[in-house]
Amino acid sequence: EEGAWEGGCVASQSREGMSFWWPFLFHTPDRILAFAPRPEPPVPNLKTANPGLGPPSRFGCDKWTFKLELEADLGSALASEGVTYSTREASFSFDGDDFASFHFPRNGIGDGAFSILFEFKTDHGCGDHDYDKWNDGCGLVDAETFGVSIGSGHVLFGVGGGTQGGGTLVSNDSYADGKWHSVLASRRVFPSGSSEIALYVDGTEVGTETVSACFDCPTLTAPTLTAPLNIDIGRLQSGSQKYFAGELRNVLHCDPITPH
């Protein structure tokens, strides 16, 4: 089923590609789902690596159409049960067996370099053991070949099938405290084909790591990411397909940006 995003923002930039700001209002004749707009990006004091791309708060907003699928128990499409809209918090609430899937032109981000920003709140840490692989956690924002998850309350970000120390960054602290936390996860690509990933939580750097081109293969074809044309919010697309229980809002996928 197709619907329209009103206020969903698309910003052109100096090289091929687009940046996508997911929020605001998705509507069909019989349902409304929304993220609230924000005057500032989730992580304060951001600057872009690409001078042709303005900060998220200055994106030009136009009406934009996405295909949105909401599924319950991997079953019926556009099932609203389990994925609810909170007017007070202006967020999506996931009950642990549902997700939202946003379709977009993957090659629009260009060369496999990107940033993901969002905010989450949960008191469910997803398990109670040590996680060292991002795609073993419960999915927060996942594009199959890269993504951010939570495991035992720790935030995990990675690319390909890499484990901690070779493709996955893991926060030292647990954030399953029922409070809102902001996440910035980025990947940069170098001419050699290797890449660097970085993770920030609440504006504080968790760490950075250089990932070799061969480590990205075959899941990632360096330097361009290859995967289905959608990003899932609230679950992992592959592997364990673990679902997130909690709230998510203000998801941004764009060219690399860094705190300053």
TrEMBL record:
Residues of the Laminin G domain: 91-260
One Pfam entry name: Laminin_G_3
Alphabetized SUPFAM superfamilies for the sequence: Concanavalin A-like lectins/glucanases (SSF49899)
Classification via Gene3D superfamilies: 2.60.120.200
Official protein name in the record: Laminin G domain-containing protein
